[in-house]
Write a structure and sequence with these properties.
9% helix, mainly beta, 103 residues, 7-stranded mixed beta sheet
């Protein structure tokens, strides 16, 4: 079982998310971010024993905190990742750190 934190995204020219910044949580530490494609991230999260949450920066406490649970949705247009639509923009995938400046 893997616990995964998603702290950032990369988008294409059309503004669609193409990659995610993933961190694997181990018993004593959380790994540095690894850039994973959308399809590889979906495959990882389709394994029933893996879970993922957005990981957002909390400016008040100066540390990352868990946001929303991330799930795979199978739509007519294909599979994609989503979070609970709770009207809190700060913890949804679309509003994570945009790492487009990092290749």
């Amino acid at each position: 079982m893997a616990a995964i934190k998603i702290s950032g995204i990369w988008k294409d020219a059309d503004g669609l998310i193409t990659h995610y910044a993933l961190h694997i949580v181990n018993t004593s530490y959380t790994t540095r971010a690894v850039k994973k494609s959308k399809s590889d991230t979906i495959k990882l999260l389709e394994k029933s024993d893996n879970t993922a949450y957005t990981w957002i920066w909390n400016y008040d406490s100066s540390r990352f905190v868990d946001g929303q649970k991330v799930e795979v949705i199978n739509a007519l247009t294909g599979k994609y990742l989503t979070t609970d639509a709770d009207n809190k923009l700060k913890d949804n995938l679309e509003h994570l750190i945009d790492f487009d400046w990092i290749r």
